[in-house]
Amino acid sequence: MPWLLRVTALYGVCLLAVAATAYLIGRLLLAVAPLSLAVIVALLLAALLNPVSRLLRRLRVPAALAALGGVFSLLGVLTLAGLLVANQVANQFDDLGETLSSGLDEVQQTIVDGPLPVGEEQLDSAIDVLQQRLSDASADVEPAATATATLETVGAILLALVLLFFFLKDGSRMWGWLLRLFPDRLRGPVDEAGRASWWAVSRYIGGQAVVAAVDAIGIGVALLVIGVPLVLPLALLTFLGGFVPIVGATVAGAAAALVALVTNGPTDALLVLAAVIAVQQLEGNLLEPLIVGRALKLHPAPVLLAVTAGTLTAGIAGAVIAVPILAVVHRAGSVLLRNRAEQREGAEPAPSEDPPSDQP
Questions:
Q1: Which of 3, 241, 276, 348 has the greatest number of CB atoms lying within 10 Å of its CB?
Q2: Where do the domains of the chain lie?
């Protein structure tokens, strides 16, 4: 066989073996999706809350209490945000129904009077069809399946909180136990790869939280100035959407513009859209490269492909965890390949590019 054909066949077999392994691992993780998601979310939250726990330990707080402090800080922030959103919705609920009704009528009239070849009867027919399909879809949902999904979600949340506590409390010991599973000659490179990966995830999730907060504040101030209702829920949606690269900011901005359209009319909707674009340009061109780019060192193209693959595989949850997984694979792979090359050349291992970072 020609040399080129032999090499191509060898690489093809290796690629098929890697793809089959990745597929089987993915199928296994999807088979226990609530468990997999709970573990990954707990790890991401541990990367976000590790500075809080580490600060408490420096103040000579016991490890268990320091871990509880990190967990309770998360629960406190979520509870406060929920109470503020519920209070704002309750205060504006009486006026919101009339505002939405008049806004929808205005939007419908604008569509009918606009340049589009859509008559009032056609628009009413389309709305009736949409309402019927939504009604049929809600009727097809079985109560038993809904109850099962709810129980799985609640169980996954509780499991994630418990795992978060143990990751914050005993993360270093867990990592040491995992290292002991490898032969002595591999422990050094694996330890370096693991610490580089954890550093990248910590920088990513912390930087993404800062970027999402700036997005939420900027869009929230714009909505407040324009006079759009439900400012706090929309700002919170923007903050949560900031953790889904590329897609989340677009969806949150579209939701804000849609609310402005049906409540305040087309003019305010265009103003909100302009504000959203301005904030996202500031994020994409300044904040994201400065805060998150250094940790990932990835081109936007693989990030977009990872988000798309995660969305197609596991929906919104897959979109959230796709980039951290890509960052881990990238950083760990770079360290392991560098160590492998240095071992072949017989050189001393070069120092890592990443600063030392304790496990959670």
A1: 276
A2: 1-31, 32-129+151-345
